[in-house]
Amino acid sequence: MRLTGNTVFITGGASGIGRGIAEALHQKGNKVIISGRRKELLDEVVKANPGMDAVQLDVTSPVQIAKVAKELIAEYPALNVVFNNAGIMPFDDVTGPLDDSQAVHLVNTNILGPVRVSAAFVEHLKKQPDAVIINTSSTVAFIPMVMFALYSATKAAIHSYTMSQRFALCDTSVQVLELAPPWVDTELVQKVATRGQCR
To answer: Which CATH number belongs to the domain containing residue 61 in this structure?
Structure first.
């Protein structure tokens, strides 16, 4: 992937790793559009980075994804990079009852979100001479954490999906990359740290 001259759409770009990547790409002269659920955070990032754009998006909503993709493709016809970064990381206890609503929300966000976003943009990306899909997995896709068992499983699923996606698109102009960040000091990790160990 080239690091300049792109038009980049990043989900989950208002905080943490997503914001850091958005700002780094913006500073290199790329056109960056971030998305997230919280308008106040999006506004804060855009204000701090003149020229960056933002759109509200909940990646658990297929209707919102389709609407936002259509709008962005129309407004930014040169869009050539889709960065699937949005994700959540709740605790789960595999030794007790399942919080079914939390589990469904986790799967909708971490697995179906990237799958649906990719599908909404892929035909447009295939028309670009140089396009990229980037999926954020995690090191826990390879070495799971017991206190985040289902989260780890969703990231393992994204790793597997990314490999299939890369192979399926190998004869097109779309490159598929995977970002597997280590455990880093983000807002999410700070919240986790306040919970302590499960046992």
So the answer is: 3.40.50.720
